[in-house]
Amino acid sequence: MTEQVSNVVYNLSEPFIGKATGQLQGTLQHIVTEVAVSKTLRWLLGWEKRGFIELAMVHTISQPFLGALFFGEDIKSLSSAPGNGQAIFDGAKQTPAVLIAAYILKTGQKGLHLPWFTLRDLGVTIASKMASRLVENNIYSSLTPGMQRATTAHDNMIAVQKHASRFVGE
Q1: Would you tell me how many other CB atoms lie within 10 Å of the CB of residue 62?
Q2: From residue 34, how far is each of 7, 37, 58, 115, 129 by CA, in Å?
Q3: What gap in Å lies between CA 31 and CA 35, rounded to an integer?
Q4: N or C: which end of the chain has fewer CB within 10 A?
Q5: End-to-end Cα, the chain, rounded Å
Q6: Distances (CA, A) of 108 to 16, 30, 97
Q7: Tens digits of residue pLDDT in 113-144
């Protein structure tokens, strides 16, 4: 039982204290991109105005689940220069992690409840994830070498999470 508890603590903290060079920076870069794209998309569409803090909390909470719920083929690291179509598809596959994180945040705010997402919630979440990965893919070559290493470390973390997952791992 203690091993299971320590695994939970490890999995929740890994995105933030991982030993891979640049992993924390990669996690933070990913969260900032997600929040900026989500906030912009919501503003452009006039949908559900959410604050920066709320969006940052949801995307921070989602980090330990990104790989654990990443169905299908492994994420294509941005260092391998995937096409935009692949980047959009990889972004969409990260949606379940954000939905789980939103549920966890709501549970913390109002207590245990049945998950409830409207089509609008689901649509804006999927669109935001796809657009974020597309933005990351298109700016990757313009990043400094340190930022590129950090992005690659974050992608590698997602791949490791996926392979260790009981849901989608091998």
Answers
A1: 26
A2: 27, 5, 10, 22, 7
A3: 6
A4: N
A5: 23
A6: 21, 23, 17
A7: 787 778 888 888 999 999 999 999 999 999 99
